[in-house]
Design a protein that fits this description.
17 helices; 6-stranded mixed beta sheet; alpha/beta; 7-stranded parallel beta sheet; 32% helix; 24% strand
């Protein structure tokens, strides 16, 4: 089961041509327009299903609101703080990154800056270019302690590289266990334990409200005198004013920054001019190899999600993973939700009985709201959209057919291979294939005059006082029946 239409993709930042090549022959029309202004992006984004960016394009709530056909935003790289995650999730839009594409490049750049700080190579180079021959002592890495904040892919590679230099590696990550860190030779410490013992600190966490200005005056006060700090993660994690104060006081011996709170920083910035700062212009992922990898990987990940093969790189789609593993079950749940709305459009609580509570109840709610006309309801947005529309569910585990109910309406269904079936309406067993357009009507007895149906009727199914009509187009005239509604199942 494909999860996306993905017919038209906009690439709005500079990217290696490998990205465009992957899409060729895959039924995707790609438009390459780097350097768009915010206004230009808002003007053209409505026609696209997918958007691929690097770090230059800011995908704001305003952009997402204008993107009425958008299904997915892809970041060719790791950091996604230039994308409004909340706005994307509320709109049912997938946010995806390429978590492994620039890992090695970012780790190597971190290591290069650590080595450069040991001998303050930037200053020695400048002095030599000015005719000065200053043979000033530096320090060795061997025997020193490096604290790694963030023990993900990049942080662990840095740990491995620094261990080769004879460094003791300690680290912290709220999502990594002490035992997992120990397997990589990293001693797990809490941050408060780390500050006073580390000769070097390196940052490998995303910029979040919880990590903004994580390195501030209070933290610097707790650090070891003469500490050296490197940040190749995100600007804003270090409070730059506090860093400058501590460089001036000597509490921080040297800092190496590849990222800044404002990029590019002002040329006359006192921090940028400091003699004990080594600065590079956000080069962490800027290698030929990394650029090729992330360009190719983001396109491949788009196609894998479209074709229902993988959710790798999806950052806001935990419910999609279950639906991808059992796509027909997800389809059945959504269809039953749509039918349920047709029979009871005033429900506020949907009762769901099934054998998978991870995504099935949410798929039922999405179907119910889709039938109600809430097109944004899907497995990305459903929790927020359901709450906004006053819909919730109660779930019970059962091995019987998937059952949904509200009020006096109860529907059951199952699937066989790729085909889904309605197996019960209220207390009446039936076996109706769920596909195409279906009209549900209620009468005191079975409809007698099928000639009163205008259009081509392909199936008439009686389930107690509810009659289900499978048809291309149909209307009822002259019968004493209540038309409950028509739903287009897919």
């Amino acid at each position: 089961m494909g999860l996306l239409k993905l017919r038209k993709v906009l690439v709005s930042d500079k990217i290696a041509n490998d990205c465009l090549e992957v899409f060729k022959g895959k039924g995707v029309e790609v438009t390459y327009k780097p350097g768009l202004s915010k206004t230009e992006l808002i003007d053209i984004i409505p026609e696209f299903n997918g958007l691929i960016v690097r770090s230059a394009t800011k995908v704001t709530a305003e952009v997402i609101k204008a993107a009425v056909n958008l299904e997915i935003i892809g970041r060719a790289g790791t950091g996604t703080d230039n994308i409004d995650h909340d706005a994307a999730s509320d709109a049912g839009v997938v946010v995806m990154n390429t978590p492994g594409g620039n890992t090695n490049s970012a780790a190597e750049h971190t290591c290069a800056l650590i080595l450069a700080m040991c001998r303050n190579l930037a200053n020695r180079h400048t002095e030599l270019m000015n005719g000065e021959w200053n043979r000033i002592n530096g320090i060795e890495l061997s025997g020193k302690t490096i604290g790694i904040i963030g023990l993900g892919r990049i942080g662990m590679i840095v740990a491995h590289r620094m261990q080769a230099f004879g460094m003791k590696t300690v680290g912290y990550d709220p999502f990594v266990s002490a035992s997992a860190a120990a397997e990589k030779g990293v001693e797990f410490l809490q941050l408060e334990e780390m500050w006073p013992i580390c000769d070097f600190l390196t940052i490998h966490v995303p910029l979040l409200p919880s990590t903004k200005h994580m390195f501030n005056s209070a933290v610097f006060e707790k650090c070891k005198k003469g500490v050296r700090i490197v940040n190749c993660a995100r600007g804003g994690i270090i409070d730059e004013e506090a860093l400058l104060e501590n460089l001036n006081s000597g509490k921080v011996a040297c800092a190496a920054l590849d990222v800044f709170e404002k990029e590019p920083p002002a040329a006359d910035s006192p921090l940028l001019q400091h003699s004990n700062l080594i600065a590079t212009p956000h080069l962490g992922a800027s290698t030929a190899e990394a650029q090729t990898r992330v360009a190719k990987e983001i396109a491949e990940q788009f196609l894998a999600l479209r074709d229902g093969k993988s959710t790798f790189g999806c950052l806001n789609a935990p419910l999609l993973r279950g639906a991808l593993n059992e796509p027909v079950k997800a389809k059945l749940a959504r269809q039953l939700g749509m039918l349920l709305f047709t029979l009871n459009p005033q429900a506020t609580v949907l009762t769901v009985k099934g054998n998978d509570g991870s995504f099935v109840p949410h798929a039922v709610m999405a179907g119910y709201l889709n039938a109600k006309g809430v097109s944004a309801a899907n497995l990305i947005s459903i929790k927020k959209v359901a709450a906004t529309n006053g819909i919730s569910f109660e779930y019970t585990e059962t091995e019987d057919d998937l059952t949904v109910e509200c009020g006096d309406v109860k529907l059951s269904g199952r699937y066989d291979g790729e085909t889904t079936f309605l197996t019960k309406v209220n207390s009446t067993p039936t076996y109706i294939p769920l596909s195409g357009n279906m009209t549900l009507v209620r009468s005191d007895s079975a409809i007698s005059n099928l000639s009163s149906l205008a259009g081509h009727v392909t199936g008439v199914h009686f389930a107690g006082d509810v009659t289900v009509l499978s048809h291309s187009t149909a209307s009822l005239e002259g019968e004493k029946v209540e038309i409950l509604g028509t739903v287009a199942l897919c």
